[in-house]
Amino acid sequence: AIRILASYHEERSPVAEQVIRESGELIRATMISNPLARLVRNNAVWLAGRSKKVLTKMSVGFSGLAIQYPS
Q1: What is the pLDDT of residue 11?
Q2: Per-residue pLDDT tens for 4-60?
Q3: Of 20, 8, 17, 22, nearest to 69 (Cα)?
Q4: CB pairs under 8 A, 24+ apart, for 55-62?
Q5: Angle at 15 between CA 1 and CA 6, to 5 degrees
């Protein structure tokens, strides 16, 4: 149990940083105010939504299943 606690910060800190970074990117993408940038974003999302590979990757990412801890 002591080993698990000792490695807690080392293992979880990079994951927490990744979650914070990715959630910030999503927030910034939804808050775009430039009309041309919004048009580009909307079309990119529409196009990406047509790809099963992209949808699967997004689903895995949003669900947290893509998070991996070192063994």
Answers
A1: 82
A2: 777 788 888 888 898 899 899 999 999 999 999 999 999 999 999 999 999 999 898
A3: 8
A4: 61/22
A5: 25
Q: What is the pTM of this model?
A: 0.66
Locus of tokens 């999302």: 45
Burial 10-49 (b: 16+ CB within 10 A, else e): eeeeeeeeeeeeeeeeeeeeeeeeeeeeeeeeeeeeeeee
Contacts of residue 55, defined as CB under 8 A and 6 or more positions apart, other chains included, come to: 48, 49
Compute the Cα dihedral for 53, 54, 59, 64 and give only its sign.
positive
